[in-house]
Amino acid sequence: MATINNLDLLPDNLPAPRDDGAADHLRARSLPPLALPATDGSMVDLSALSGRSVVFIYPRTGQPGVPALVEYWNEIAGARGCTPQTKGYQALAGEFQALGCRIFGLSTQSRAYQQELVARLGLPFPILSDERLQLARALSLPTLEVAGQTLLKRMSWLVQDGRIVRVRYPVFPPDGNAAEMLAWLRQEPA
């Protein structure tokens, strides 16, 4: 399967990730007190936020005109689809906001790298950087190693007052994740 250059599209034969149980321990888990750099210039400690938040986690975004991290990126189950996943949240941001829910993206890419995505797509929410893998290690998050880089596996959380109340793992297809999380949010009492 060749890597396609249009980051907005998902190939028809994209391999689906399987649930390996690597996120089962996250349900009902309190988030550790860690401040992560956000693309808006702030530091965000998810454990200290009151109310509801959705955190969508992805391996890494690509950049237009830049080759994929590896030529077989599309063949790695769960790797492809970071831009479609993000655009799903962008399209539904107003509905999340109307329900009093913040949105955060999260990857191991640097804040500077993530800022390209935020600027290119005009995102109305920040992306958090776990470049130092502090959150990944504190929560034993599922990861994958590609080209010498540790990347987070795709998942999403519904967080209430610093505690993970719902976990979606694995996420597939990535472009439907925001709608699924919005439906879950509507089921959870505020």
Automatic annotation (TrEMBL):
Pfam families: Redoxin
Entry's transmembrane regions: none
Species of provenance: Chromobacterium sphagni
Thioredoxin domain: residues covered: 25-190
UniProt-listed Gene3D superfamilies: Glutaredoxin
UniProt entry keywords in alphabetical sequence: Antioxidant, Disulfide bond, Oxidoreductase, Peroxidase, Redox-active center
Name assigned to this protein: BcpB protein
Biological process annotations from GO: cell redox homeostasis; cellular response to oxidative stress
Gene Ontology, cellular component aspect: cytoplasm
GO molecular function: thioredoxin peroxidase activity
Source domain of life: Bacteria
